[in-house]
Design a protein that fits this description.
Elements: E1 12-15, H1 30-38, H2 43-55, H3 61-74, E2 84-90, E3 97-103, E4 108-113, H4 126-131, E5 136-140, E6 144-147, E7 153-156
Antiparallel strand pairs: 1-4, 2-3, 2-5, 3-4, 5-6, 6-7
Helix pairs in contact: 2-3
Length: 157
C-alpha cells in the first residue's frame, strides 16, 4: 500500500448526546452569582475535572455525563444556561496534543494540537491553561475563571 504524501492527522473529537445537560436552577442575582462563582472549588470537583485528561481519547457517554453531574453538584444553585461555555486544560496525552476542552455548547470533548484553532471564547483560555499554573480554566461568556490545584479561583475579564 503506498504511503500518503501528506501526513494529515485528525484532531481527536468526541461528541455526546446528553439526556440531561447542565441543570437550570433558580437564578441568583448578579452580585450573588459573582460571589458564588469566585468561591473555592471543592476537592471532589477538582478530582473529577482532573480525570478529563486521564480519560483521554477513549471517553464514553457515561464518563462525559460524570463531568456534567460534577458541575451540577458543585453549583446546584447556579443557572449556567448560555453562560458556562466549557473548560480548557493542559493536555498530557503527549505529542501532538497541547490542550483539551470540555465544550458544553457542543457537548464534545476535543484534544487540540499545537497551533490548532479552538472555537470562539475557548481559545482565550489556551495560554492560561498552558502557562498559567492553573489546573483548568472555566470559560464563561463574560470572563475566564482560572482554577488552581487547591481550588482557588482567579477571575480574568
Amino acid at each position: 500500500m503506498p504511503k500518503p504524501i501528506l501526513n494529515v492527522e485528525q484532531k481527536v473529537t468526541q461528541q455526546f448526546d446528553l439526556s440531561k445537560k447542565l441543570s437550570v436552577n433558580t437564578k441568583l442575582d448578579p452580585l450573588k452569582l459573582e460571589k458564588r462563582l469566585r468561591e473555592k472549588r471543592s476537592s471532589k470537583y477538582m478530582e473529577i475535572m482532573k480525570q478529563l485528561d486521564i480519560s483521554g481519547c477513549h471517553m464514553d457517554q457515561q464518563k462525559y455525563q460524570e463531568f456534567i453531574d460534577a458541575i451540577n453538584q458543585e453549583f446546584p444553585d447556579v443557572d449556567f444556561e448560555n453562560q458556562l461555555l466549557g473548560i480548557v486544560a493542559k493536555c498530557y496525552l503527549g505529542q501532538p496534543y497541547e490542550v483539551h476542552t470540555l465544550d458544553l455548547t457542543g457537548n464534545i470533548v476535543v484534544h487540540y494540537k499545537r497551533n490548532e484553532d479552538m472555537p470562539g471564547l475557548l481559545n482565550r483560555a489556551r495560554s492560561l491553561a498552558l502557562h498559567g499554573g492553573y489546573d483548568f480554566i472555566e470559560v464563561y461568556i463574560d470572563c475566564l475563571r482560572a482554577v488552581k490545584s487547591d481550588g482557588t479561583v482567579t477571575v480574568a475579564k
